[in-house]
Amino acid sequence: xxxxxxxxxxxxxxxxxxxxxxxxxxxxxxxxxxxxxxxxxxxxxxxxxxxxxxxxxxxxxxxxxxxxxxxxxxxxxxxxxxxxxxxxxxxxxxxxxxxxxxxxxxxxxxxxxxxxxxxxxxxxxxxxxxxxxxxxxxxxxxxxxxxxxxxxxxxxxxxxxxxx
Length: 164
What we know:
The protein is of the alpha+beta class. 49% of the residues lie in helices and 16% in strands. It has seven helices and five strands. Helix 2 runs antiparallel to helix 7 (152-163). The longest helix is centred in the N-terminal third of the chain and has 20 residues, at 4-23. The termini are far apart. Mean pLDDT is 86; it is low at 8-28.
């Protein structure tokens, strides 16, 4: 009977340590997602060749941000791919706003979508339809996602799954 007690204590200690070890990730912050890679994975190879991705850890993106009406200081992280040609309604973006900046960013993105829709209304009907059907979604983890492209539902679904 005396031999069983130390074994039980050792087993109980091992069990306790394993439970504590498993719960260690629950309170820790997850590593930031690679938004540029999420965009690449959501698009076709052809679109990845045609449209560059401006992202928060990349080269100078001030021109893209200015064109969109976005302030880099209002964002924690972002990946943005847009068409600057007036013949294509194309924009796919993931933006993680800083605390308290969601509405500011959301307004700028809504304005961008409206400008694109207005620019194609009497110009290119197919591009007008794409712009008019653009999606602006807020993910459960706080990212704002814009999808304005052909096959938008599939692209949005891919992004949503990657951000879960």
